[in-house]
Specification:
single chain, 231 residues, 6-stranded antiparallel beta sheet, 43% strand, elongated
Amino acid sequence: MPWERDVDLRVLAQHGGGAVDDGQPVAAKGTRDGAIFSADWYLKQLLRGRIFQAAGGATSQGFTDPGTFGAGTLDSDEFDLLVTVPLNTTIIPLAWTIQMEVYGTDQLFEILLAWGTGAVAAGTPLTLAAVNQNTGSARASALTIVANADDVGTVLTKQGEIYRDGLQNIDTVAADEAGLQPVRFEWKAGVPSDLFVIEGARFVAGWIAAQAGTGFQKFVWAEFETGEDIG
């Protein structure tokens, strides 16, 4: 058909080039043989100041002191991570990384990340600061993130599951056997089955259950005002 033959798409052959102000037209750029350069969605949101992280162990963004996770099996009212997504805010969880320091004695090791409603953390949990991963952005997060909460909080009414992992049984590890057990667990959003849009008011809750586990964690998300264009 004529329109199939008459399209003449051209790009500016350029490896570099300066930026322009928002809202200004700019030519598409490509290699010298015509291949188009493109930025993926994640990079776009990073440049917009929409990607945040919260990390720590015993302290927010701490260096060496691990946090103490809930002892025993998964306990629905004892949160190792609790993210409060307020009304008029929407997030897309992107990653959750756990670095174990100690498991304790023999027991099943379980990890769960889920979303739902109604959760309340007990005791005086650690507040994890929300850090914008674009250091040039002044945008702040509307979320509240806590970790290492006590037992007997208010149970999460689970609406959906994001990630589940663990080990069938952790044996007691002697000092000279430190390399026998995996120590790093990581979930990353990638394929559509791992993508979730969480609209507030809701909670994202995480559990890291070992006999006497300690370690560090990092949660990463993209954050938007509910209803805005996130394309």
